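Q: Okay, next protein. This is Methyl-accepting chemotaxis protein from Shewanella phaeophyticola. I've checked the sequence twice, so it should be correct. Can you predict the 3D structure?
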Amino acid sequence: MIELLQSETLNIDSITQDTVKQAQTSSDLISNIGTDIDAIAESSRSIMDMSFQISTSSEEQSAVANDIAKELTDIRQKSNVIRGLSQQSSHGVKDLTEASANLGKILSRYRTN
């Protein structure tokens, strides 16, 4: 009977040691999982920061694009004004040329020899 108790005691000791080893392994795994979760959280923060920077850059680029579009519209309007003034100048020069020719004809009648 003592032998049976000693045998069972050894068996219980072996089971206890296995349980302690498994508990240690589980503890190590949980610790590793915690480390992995911390790394994932840090990566998520980095991604959020980058997303914010991209968003800010996109807003700035959009504002610049709107400013460029406004400037191009202003340039187009000013170009149209300049074209109109050029056409008026061209007509004025044409009218002045005709008036000068007519004046030349009139003055040619009054030549003194």
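A: Here is a summary of the prediction. The chain is about 95% helix and 0% strand. The mean pLDDT is 90.
Q: Noted. On to the next one.
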